[in-house]
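Tokens in:
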């Protein structure tokens, strides 16, 4: 039986996010330590710095390239030019990867797709890779698919049609993510397409933080980019409904960058409630998970629409921190009420009620968090994820070589 010896990963990303954390957990798992890994990524990938900082796999090699499809500008006129140039940039990226991959041989090529449904660089790379030098070609999709834009719908349909005939498999991080791709694209229309779900896994921290039940102020964190659909404003509205005795016991930390207009509007909303002392904006923190979580008493994920996994929630549970999460997307696949609070999306009343309960019955929340840590340790740790990936690749490659 042939073993997997070499893997190439194409990873295009602009901001830091869940994909760089996922890659760290996957490649730092015990099952990837003996495999030669080459990551091809764009030079302006802000998540690369964090990946390099947290990577402990000495077999990982990084090759940076200039990405046409990752060029961005705040100027509205330039943004429009870049948008309508995407088809040209896709063709240019295709030939760019023809050159990058020239005479390079890998057992597996993985394209990491943070947002399916648009014109993306990793898709061009997968089409450019010659099957003579890449035995398997796999696409990993992390987030919900979007419907193709009116302008480029035909091109995206064609790209998906070609991908469906060249990919060995498509891996989704949840059934919910898979469903969005099924209903919003033609990628899975090919009869022979192998589509499967492999859930994310995280590192387990052996030393659970110790809590002091007498703590006067509880530190609550929302760890995500600040975007409207992430529900930061819902939290502020819920805070405004609290009695003063609860307001005085809660301090909220917004950890993540975002669009300046959205952040300024959120700050103005908080200021209008005279609540500036209770909300702290940290922007992006160049710290590892343990450093971010060690002084936090509660982590929230209040996404309004879709969540592919809720990686910050997995990380919090792995550290033994209580969590509250909205029931959107794949949340019901990953979590249950035995170890976290699951509430309705965009429900101000639910958020207010559970914040009060967190203060009044804090020990119960801590007990749930400890149960959550055991759950993640046994079912969603990075070695389980790494083993599932390696088993899939090994089965596919041996089937391919024998047929």
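Residues out:
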């Amino acid at each position: 039986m042939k073993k997997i010896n070499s893997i190439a990963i194409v990873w295009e990303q602009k901001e830091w996010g869940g994909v760089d954390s996922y890659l760290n957990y996957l490649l730092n798992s015990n099952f990837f330590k003996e495999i030669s890994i080459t990551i091809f990524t764009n030079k302006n990938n802000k998540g690369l710095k964090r990946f390099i900082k947290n990577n402990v796999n000495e077999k990982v090699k990084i090759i940076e390239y200039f990405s046409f499809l990752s060029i961005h500008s705040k100027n509205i006129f330039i943004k429009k030019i870049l948008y309508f140039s995407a088809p040209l940039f896709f063709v240019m990226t295709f030939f760019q990867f023809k050159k990058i991959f020239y005479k390079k041989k890998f057992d597996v090529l993985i394209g990491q797709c943070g947002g399916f449904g648009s014109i993306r660089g990793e898709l061009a790379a997968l089409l450019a890779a010659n099957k003579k030098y890449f035995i398997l070609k796999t696409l990993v999709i992390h987030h919900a698919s979007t419907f193709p834009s009116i302008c480029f719908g035909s091109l995206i349909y064609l790209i998906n049609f070609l991908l469906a005939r060249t990919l060995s498999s498509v891996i989704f991080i949840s059934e919910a993510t898979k469903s969005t791709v099924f209903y919003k694209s033609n990628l899975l229309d090919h009869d022979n397409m192998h589509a499967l779900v492999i859930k994310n896994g995280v590192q387990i921290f052996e030393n659970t933080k110790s809590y002091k039940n007498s703590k006067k102020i509880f530190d609550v964190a929302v760890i995500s980019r600040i975007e409207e659909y992430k529900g930061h404003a819902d939290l502020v509205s819920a805070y405004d409904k609290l009695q003063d005795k609860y307001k005085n016991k809660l301090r909220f930390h917004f950890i993540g960058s975002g669009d300046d207009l959205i952040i300024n509007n959120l700050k103005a909303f908080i200021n209008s409630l005279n609540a500036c002392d209770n909300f702290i904006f940290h922007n992006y923190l160049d710290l590892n998970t343990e450093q971010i979580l060690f002084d936090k008493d509660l982590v929230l994920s209040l996404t309004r629409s879709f969540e592919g996994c809720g990686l910050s929630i997995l990380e919090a549970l792995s550290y033994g921190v209580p969590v509250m999460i909205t029931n959107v997307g794949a949340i019901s696949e990953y979590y249950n009420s035995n170890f976290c609070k699951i509430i309705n999306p965009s429900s101000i009343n639910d958020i207010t009620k559970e914040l009060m309960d967190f203060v009044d019955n804090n020990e119960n929340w801590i007990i749930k968090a400890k149960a959550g840590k055991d759950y993640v340790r046994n079912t969603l740790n990075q070695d389980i994820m790494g083993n599932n990936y390696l088993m899939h690749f090994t089965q596919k490659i041996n089937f391919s070589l024998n047929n």
